[in-house]
Amino acid sequence: MVLLPVRPEAARYLILAVVFVCAACGLVYELELVALASYLIGDSVTQASVVLSLMVFAMGLGSLLAKRLRCRAVVGFAVLEAVLALVGGGSGMMLYAAFAWSGGAHLVLVSFSLAIGVLIGAEIPLLMSLMQRVSRRDAEGTVADLFAADYVGALVGGLAFPFLLLPWLGELTGALLTGAVNAVAGGVLVLWLFRRDMTPRTRRRLVLLNAAVLALLAAAAALVGDFEAAARRAVYGDQVRVAVRTGVQEVVLTGRASQPPDLFIDGQLTVRGSDEHRYHEALVHPAMNGPHARVLILGGGDGLAAREALGYPDTVSVTVVDLDAGLVRLARRDPALSALNGRAYDDPRTEHVTADAFSWLRGARRGTYDVIVSDLPCPGTAGGKLYSMEFYGLARRVLAPGGRVVVHAGPARAHPGTYWTVAATVRAAGLAVTPYRSDGDHGFLLAGVGHPPALALDPAVPRLRSPLAERLPGYGPAAEHGRPEGAWPQPSTLVRPRYAR
Q1: Numbered residues of the known binding site for S-methyl-5'-thioadenosine
Q2: How does this polypeptide assemble, per the annotation (predicted)?
Q3: Which of 185, 155, 163, 159 is nearest to 88 (CA)?
Q4: 162, 278, 408, 451: which has the fewest Cβ within 10 Å?
C-alpha cells in the first residue's frame, strides 16, 4: 500500500473513473479513424474492418508490453496517457494531411491504428497495478470492476462521437479535444493521487510532459481551420468557391467564377460543370420516352437530373428524394450551382424530400410514378442497400403501369463486374433491363415491367446540348461489349452484397 491523499476506497473510485474516461477516449479514437478513413478512402466496411482488427490485435501486443512497466506502473501510466493523448488526438490531422499532400492515407491509417491499439492495450494492466496499490480487494473483484468501468466508458464514447463530437466539433477538433481529456485524466490521477510515490524531479518532468501535450493539442485545435483550408487547397486546387460540411458529407464547389462549377462530394468529383450535361442527358432522356407526367429522382440533390426532366412541358411533377438537405440548399441558393441546374428548385413542379431513398420508398404509394431516376453514387461508394434487389423491388412497386426506371450503375467498361451485377440485381427484382453505356464510360440501365424498354428519345425531347440523338443507337451495343460470358452474375441483396471491386 502507498501513502494516499484520500481514503483507499475513494482512491479506488477515482481509478475506476479514470478507467471510464480512458475507455471512452479510446473508442472515440477508433471511431474517428474509421469515419475519416471511410470519407477519404471510401468503402466503409473495409476501413472499419481494417481499423478495428488492427487495433484489437495491437491491444494484445500492448497488454504484453505493459508487463515490462508494472514495476514502474505510476510513471509508466502517466507517460502512456500523455503519448496516447498526443497520438490519438492528432491522428485525424495526420491522416487528413497524408491524404491531402501525398494522395494516399493507407500507410498512415495502418500505423496509427497499430500505435493507438498498443497504447490502449497497455492501459488496463497498468491500471490493474495501480488498483492493487490502493485496494486490498481480491484480484477477481478488481478485474471485474475494471472491465465494468471500461465497457461502460466505451459505451459513452461510442455514443458521444456520432451525437456530440462529430456534429458539434467535427472530426479533427473532436479528436483533439478527446486527446486533451485523456491527458488531463491520466495526469490528475498520477500527479495528485500518487504524487507521494514519485520524487519531486519525476513529478516536475511529468508536469512538463503533460503541459507540452496539452499545449500542442490546443495549438492544433486553434489551427484546425487554417489546416483544413490548406488541405482543401491541396486536394481541390486554389479555385475553391464553396466548402461546407452538411452533416451528411463534405460538399465543395470549385472553378473560376466565369465557368460552371465542379462539384466534389466527400473528396470525389461528382459533377464536372463543363460537360455534366452529357451524363445527365444520357441518364434522364431515354427514360422519358413514354408517359412522364410524374417523375421521381432518387439522389440527384444537385438538381441537374431534375433540370432535364423539367424541360418537358407535360411533366407535371418532379420529386427529388435526397438525404442531404445541405446539398439541396446549396443547389437552390448558390448562384453558380443554381444557374447550372436551371434553378430547378424554383420551379413549382419540383418537390424536395429529405429522406433516405430506401426508407422513403417503403412508405410511398403504389403505382405513383411514370419515371424513376436512380441518380445515386457508384455502387461500392453508396450504401449497399441502395443497389440491392430489395431496393429495386420497392422502386418497381411505386412504378405506374408502363413506367420506366433508369439506374446509374457506375463505369461499365472500367468495372464491368459491378455494372453487370447491378443489371442482374435490377433483373432479379422483376424488371426487364436494357443496358447502355454513354460517352465517358457512364453505365446506365433502362428498365421496365414486361419487355425491355426501347432505347430511344421522346419525339418532343427538349433541345439537347450533347449529340445524344445521334449517338444513342450505339450506346446499347457499347454496353454489351463487357457482358460476362455464361450466366448472369448473382444479384446483390441486403444480406449478401456483391459489389466488391
Answers
A1: 249, 322, 356-357
A2: Homodimer or homotetramer.
A3: 185
A4: 451
Annotated binding site for spermidine: 280, 302
Helix intervals (H) in 334-489: 335-340, 357-363, 389-397, 416-428, 468-480
Which one from 266, 370, 375, 439 is the annotated catalytic residue?
375
Percent pLDDT > 70 in the chain is 98
Task: Kindly give the pairing relationship between strand 442-448 and strand 432-438.
Answer: antiparallel
Integer Cα distance of 89 and 400 in angstroms: 53
Helix (H/G/I), strand (E/B), else coil: 163? helix
CA pair distance 13, 310, nearest whole angstrom: 66
| End-to-end alpha carbon distance in the chain | 59
Residue-wise burial string across 68-91, b where 16 or more C-beta atoms lie within 10 A, e elsewhere = ebeeebbbbbbbbbbbbbbbbbbb
- CATH fold of 275-458+467-480: Rossmann fold (3.40.50)
Pick the CATH number of 8-229 from 1.20.1250, 2.60.40, 1.10.10, 1.10.3470: 1.20.1250
Most confident of 93-107, 139-153, 311-325: 311-325
- Residue 1's pLDDT is what? 54
Q: Is 375 a catalytic residue?
A: yes
Domain with CATH 3.40.50.150 in the chain: 275-458+467-480
- Residue whose cell numbers read 475507455: 23
CA 423 distance to own-chain centroid: 26
| CA 160 to each of CA 14, 165, 372, 461: distance values in angstroms, whole numbers, following the listed order | 22, 6, 38, 52
Cell numbers 452484397 correspond to what residue? Answer: 497
- What single letter denotes the amino acid at residue 132? Q
Q: What is the pLDDT of residues 157-200, one digit of tens each?
A: 999 999 999 989 989 999 999 999 999 999 999 999 999 889 99
pTM summary value: 0.86
**Which amino acids are annotated as binding site, given as ranges?**
249, 280, 302, 322, 356-357
pLDDT digit string, tens, across residues 398-407:
999 999 999 9
User: HSE on the CB side for 428, CA within 13 Å?
Assistant: 17
